[in-house]
User: What shape does this take?
Amino acid sequence: MSGVISYIIVIAIAVVFALICRNMARSRNRSQNLWTVLGFFFPLISLIILLIMGTDNSKSASA
Assistant: This one.
């Protein structure tokens, strides 16, 4: 039973990081879908990379 709860917690944390990365990507004019997937599978690495990359000024602000 505790194994199932552990998996649920890990999935919940991955979803939270995915949503954080998605919002950061939107505000920085990056691909939202790409960073959502990356944030789910590689949470801390994706977040750190997004923080380092900054804003992409060559794209428009559209989704």
Observations:
- Residues 2-52 form one domain.
